[in-house]
Each structure stands twice: as structure tokens, then as C-alpha cells.
């Protein structure tokens, strides 16, 4: 009887979890770009924000959906495991980033893919859907950039407004310290603290997140320079006719108008709101976020 119970237990565990595989593909210009694959089913490609940050923190997103979908947590060119690449204006730009996703789709052997992106990752998802609308099954955007950069000054204003005086002092203090791992960690924490609804819990969450995160400031600088010139999707995003769901934290520093700019171009867009959360709802309100993520893919 005990043996039978153990057999059922291991069968349950095997069916409830899916192994992760870290794999790579060769881009058309010969670079090795990496991704982690989890689960089985229709493919979702997960795109993190920044730009410049690796995507490993989105693994829990893929795990949440792994019983119904194959999640591809993709480290964009110049980030995470894909950081060992040539970095200049010819390789780090919006056109190359969208082409990389298309080459990943072809590598995976998929006719169509869903894309889920947060912040800048949401902007890149929109860019891909603008250029390859026929290849996208669904867009799910979280705390997303709008279809252009017109609201970035308001984004910066929101951050400055939400940085408390003592946090401003702390940020200045750590910026003036000799370079060290601890100084860089503390500087990053105080830089991003205004992104949170609750700054007390945000401090601890950021300490934990940044102790594990990878960031490539060279990639970030190159990409932002290109985006300042080339990120305007308004003329092409309307080509995408599939479902679009935006998960919108109520207290996001990203102006709410960004989401409505997307909806103006994609009237089929539906919204899911997350209460008491800033820019990173997966960290700040996971009890609300992960059901919302499931709803976005399984209900809408």
C-alpha cells in the first residue's frame, strides 16, 4: 500500500512540475542568444524590461503557466546569458531586437507565438507585433511602455515625485561612495524604490531582487539612444488584430495614459487592474498578479 501511495505521489509531482531547459540559438549575424524553456503547450515568449536586465526573474511567470503553455524566458541580446555579444549601435537597436525575436520563433518551429512583456519588454512586444502581426497569437503587456516615448517625461516626473527626501539623500550618498558591490546594490535599490507602492516592503524586495539580477548598462545606453530616434509604433501597431491584454498596476509610475494610447491603436485591448502595487506587481502583489496572468492567457 505504501508503495502504491508513493507511486501516485511521484506521478502527481511529475505532472505538476516541468523541467527547465536552458538552450540557445544562433542569430543571423552569428551570435548565441539564450532562453529557458518550461512547460508544454502553445508558446509564450517572456520579455523583461530595462532595457539591460536579464529575464530570469520572469521564470516564476513561466512556471505559473507551465501546465498549459510552453514558456520561453528569453534573455534579449546583450542581457543575462545573452550578454557575451558585440555591443554597438549596429547590434543593439529596436530593429535588431525585433528580428531576434522573429529568429527565435523560427528556431522554435512555431507558426505563431504569444508574447508577454513588462515595462520596456511590453514596448518590445508591441514592436514585434507591429512588424510581424501575423505571427502573434496574443499580446499580454504588464506595466507597459506606450507605443511611443511621449510620456517618458511624465514617467520621470512620477519617479521624482515619489522619491521621499530621505531616499533622495540615501541615493546621493551611495552615488558618492567608492565603487563596490555593496555600493552598487544600495544605489540600485534607492534608484528603483519610487517604483513601489509600499516603499518599506519595496526596500527588502529590491535588495533580494538586485542581489540576483544581472544588468548591462552599456546595452541599456545603446538601446535608449536608438529608441529615442526609432521608437514610434503608431503607424504600424494597428496592423495587429489579435487579442491584447494589459495588466495595469493601480499605482504604477508608468502613466496610465500609456495603456490608453495602446488601446486607441488596438481597440480590442482589455485591462486587468492590480490594486496596491507599483511597477512590479509580480513582486509587490503576487497574490493578485499571478491569477491575473492566468486570466490573461486562459480566459481572455
Describe this structure in words.
It is a single chain. The chain has an eight-stranded mixed β-sheet with strand order 1-2-4-3-5-6-7-8, with helices on both faces. With 300 residues, it is of the alpha/beta class. It has a domain at 31-56 and 63-152 and 216-298: Rossmann fold. Residues 1-16 have low confidence and may be disordered. Helices cover 45% and strands 16% of the residues.
**Approximately how much helix is present in the residues?**
40-55%
Q: Report the biggest beta sheet as strand number plus sense, adding barrel if it closes.
A: 8 strands, mixed
- Spatial gap, N to C terminus: 44 Å
Figure out the total of helices.
12
Sequence stretches where pLDDT stays below 50 over 5 or more residues: 1-16
Features:
alpha/beta, Rossmann fold, globular, 300 residues, 8 strands
Quick take:
The chain is of the alpha/beta class and about 300 residues long. The protein has 12 helices and 8 strands.
Secondary-structure blueprint of this entry?
Elements: H1 2-16, E1 20-26, E2 32-38, E3 43-47, H2 59-64, E4 70-74, H3 94-108, E5 113-118, H4 120-131, E6 136-142, H5 152-162, H6 165-175, H7 181-192, H8 199-212, H9 217-230, E7 244-249, H10 257-265, E8 270-274, H11 281-284, H12 286-298
Parallel strand pairs: 3-4, 3-5, 5-6, 6-7, 7-8
Antiparallel strand pairs: 1-2, 2-4
Amino acid at each position: 500500500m505504501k508503495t502504491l501511495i508513493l507511486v501516485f505521489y511521484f506521478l502527481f509531482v511529475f505532472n505538476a512540475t516541468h523541467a527547465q531547459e536552458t538552450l540557445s540559438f544562433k542569430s543571423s549575424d552569428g551570435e548565441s542568444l539564450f532562453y529557458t524553456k518550461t512547460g508544454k503547450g502553445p508558446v509564450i515568449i517572456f520579455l523583461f524590461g530595462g532595457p539591460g536586465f536579464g529575464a530570469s526573474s520572469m521564470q516564476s511567470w513561466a512556471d505559473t503557466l507551465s501546465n498549459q503553455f510552453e514558456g520561453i524566458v528569453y534573455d534579449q541580446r546583450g542581457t543575462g546569458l545573452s550578454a557575451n555579444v558585440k555591443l554597438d549601435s549596429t547590434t543593439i537597436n529596436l530593429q535588431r531586437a525585433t528580428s531576434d525575436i522573429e529568429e527565435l520563433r523560427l528556431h522554435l518551429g512555431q507558426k505563431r507565438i504569444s508574447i508577454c512583456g513588462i515595462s520596456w519588454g511590453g514596448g518590445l512586444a508591441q514592436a514585434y507585433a507591429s512588424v510581424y502581426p501575423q505571427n502573434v497569437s496574443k499580446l499580454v503587456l504588464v506595466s507597459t511602455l506606450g507605443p511611443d516615448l511621449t510620456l517618458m517625461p511624465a514617467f520621470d516626473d512620477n519617479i521624482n515625485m515619489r522619491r521621499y527626501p530621505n531616499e533622495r539623500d540615501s541615493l546621493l550618498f551611495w552615488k558618492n561612495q567608492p565603487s563596490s558591490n555593496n555600493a552598487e546594490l544600495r544605489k540600485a535599490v534607492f534608484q528603483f524604490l519610487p517604483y513601489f507602492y509600499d516603499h518599506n516592503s519595496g526596500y527588502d524586495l529590491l535588495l533580494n531582487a538586485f542581489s540576483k539580477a544581472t544588468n548591462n548598462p552599456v546595452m541599456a545606453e545603446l538601446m535608449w539612444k536608438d529608441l529615442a530616434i526609432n521608437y514610434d509604433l503608431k503607424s504600424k501597431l494597428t496592423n495587429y488584430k489579435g487579442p491584447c491584454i494589459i495588466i495595469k498596476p493601480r499605482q504604477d509610475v508608468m502613466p496610465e495614459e500609456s495603456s490608453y494610447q495602446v488601446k486607441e491603436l488596438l481597440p480590442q485591448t482589455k485591462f486587468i487592474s492590480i490594486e496596491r502595487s507599483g511597477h512590479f506587481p509580480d513582486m509587490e502583489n503576487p497574490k493578485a498578479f499571478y491569477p491575473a496572468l492566468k486570466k490573461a492567457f486562459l480566459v481572455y
